Amino acid sequence: MLKRSDTYSPATGSHTSNLVPLVYLRMLGESLETTSDSAYEITLAALDIKDAFLQVPQENLVEVSLYNQKYIIKRNLPGQRLGAKAWYWFFRDYATNALQCEWSVEQPCLARCTRDGVHNCFMIHVDDLLFTGSAKFWAETFLPTMEAKFNVSHSELKGDGTEISFLKRRLVKLSDGLLLIPGTTVEKVVAYFERFFGPARSQKIPCDSSVQNQDESRPLTPGDSKAYRSVIGLLLYVARDRIDVMFTVKELSSCMAAPTTLALQRLRKLIGYLKASGNMGIKLFIPEFGAGKTRQGAETFWLLETYTDADWSANKRHRRSTSCAIHMVNGNFTFGPSRTQRVVSLSSAESELHSMAQYGFRVLRCNIHQEVFRVFELQQSDPSTVD
Amino acid sequence: MSCSKVTHQQWTDNSAARMLVQRQGVGRIRHPSGKILWIQSLVLQDEVTVGQIPTAWNYSDVGTKPLARNRLLALLNQLGVTDPITFQSVGQEEYELAAVKTQHEQSLKRLTKAILRMTAAWGLESGFHVGAEATKVDEVCLSGEACGNDGNQWLWLAMFFMLLMMVGFAIKGYFMWRQVSMDLTHCWQQVGDEDAYVATQEARIDALMRKFETLEGQLQQVVAEMKDEIQRIGNETNMVHDYASGLHYSIVENGGFLRNGLGLTHQQWVHLTTLERANMVAARVMGAVDSMRAIRQRYGTYGQTDETDAIPMETEDTATTPSSAETITGLLDFLKIEHNRCLENMELWDANAIQGLILQFLEEMREASGSDLMRRCVSKVSEVFRDLHKKAIEQNRWESVDRYQMVFQMYAPE
Hints:
The structure holds two protein chains of two kinds. Chain A contains eight helices and 16 strands. In chain A, α6 (243-253) runs antiparallel to α7 (261-277). Helix content of chain A is 36%, strand content 26%. Among the domains of chain B are: 2-130, no CATH class; 303-410, no CATH class. At the A-B interface, β10, α6, β12, β13 and β14 of A face β1, α1, α2, α3 and β3 of B.
């Protein structure tokens, strides 16, 4: 098969999705503190471009035949391999020209438009867009510009209790912060599981320590295996926002290739836990200068704290350690991956070190860290220093 | 590099790992990797600060191992997990419990350290020291050897102070014991007072009970007397009632009339109603004054009321067949006979009609007189009886039919 290298299209990752809301909360906190005459209204808004791909002209005209009729396709179609990339560049060019915005180098999904000393920034994920900044700029410049070119639908946080939805997540405004609620509800997952495997009893914990034991039970039938895989597929979405089941989902997804009856038992326990615990959201508080969860009084406004940990080869099946790194920006949870390390560690310090390097440093350095910086820098730096 | 905009703090609970990244070079590490040197350089450049936290508050435990429910909820609480419906933090209680536990553990650790340090300072150490404490003890011992006399002096001084403290405690203890015994005596006295008071109260309660019982007896006696009284008054009432009925009866008998009859049997009632009706008729016919006079002279020359009753009884046999009457009086007599006959045969509607006719005649007699009256009366009689005749045919009373036919033919206007 032909390998191609030109399909890359920038997209946000789960580690970036909490950052724009955090910037919003910071601006909100600052606007609450300043006096009324210099204050400007801050908004957080989501925009959905309905005809994204159809806007983009086809790079090379394509001829297709449909019902013995020949057609020439001039525009991109959804599902076309090159569509995402072409759309990104099409949008980027349009936004740069129309709004004079600057794009982040490290995380190409982020952009900034500075107007009247306010750094409005937005994040684009294919055809979904999350904007934060001055409400006036949004209503008078940004939205009309978008509406002029595209067919869009949009929503905006108006006051306490209102909500918008971005990338299958609900963002609810509270009086002292934002609540992020996963779009894939627990009820949906539980119902899906129970349709295939029957009811699950309520559980107090997502798994017990036996989840890492050797698994010698017999494999599931092909039909059950398929259902097992689709339930895990849903759970992987849920685990992105559910810190409590993250670890269990990781362990269960490791036997997706060949599910066994024991794995199904463990999955049943996890579903029982989800059923008992119900939906959970993550609350982001208004950040304060240099105040983190454990460390206080940093010299910069933003303080990124990374908590890393590793179990030292607790998994009896492959003896590779699990590492986890919880990233908190000014005491707010942003990203927490739980992964299995690639190597077998010989000492606990070594496994911890791997954990630190793998997530605390490597992933962070290469991805999040830069992105975090970029978002915050975009939002923070003086306009005069950016040419 | 633009990293100065964000401070990066790295937390780990493994001191070995922390030490590794905070030093420079690999030293005698057995499985070194390139990552270590890279991290070390970052730490050296102050890009990242590495710190250590207690395992209990390492939030990344959530993603590393299966946790107990309490721990899981406490950590989730700290990560800002919130119920999307109630907006309440998850696991607040668990977090508070865990925080208290950590505090206790910390203070316990501090206490242990302080005790160890004290024993070391007093030179009472034995062989149970470990780690850092052991080195400290060694240092103390070394300094003790260096100037031995000073060490002994310190020991004596310490013992002297302990003796002093013991004496102090003993004196303090004696005073406290005296205070306590005084308090105890006071308490016993109070208990005695309370007992006496309770006894008086019990006596009072007994007296009150007795008083209450006497009152109850008296009350019962009074109730019995009252019952007798009620019985007696009831009897008297009955007697009075009978008496009133008697009076009533005699009043009506004597030509008076009452709207309400009390205490009469049904038979008596029927009789009285008839009499009353008659009296009323008489009063209306004669006028109130004449009627009263007639009543007063009841047993005098007038005896019409009785005679009215008596007439149909006497004439019943003679006037079985109706005959034409020439005068109004004769006509009335005839109608009375018919009335009585109807009552006897229980033809009450007919009796009623005849009675109405009689009353009408009496009314008219008061106002007018002459042959004109007579003619009108006769035509009315025939009219009424013709109606009665029709009704009797409808109801199949053949005996009455013949009779009424005869009457209305007899009085029919020529």
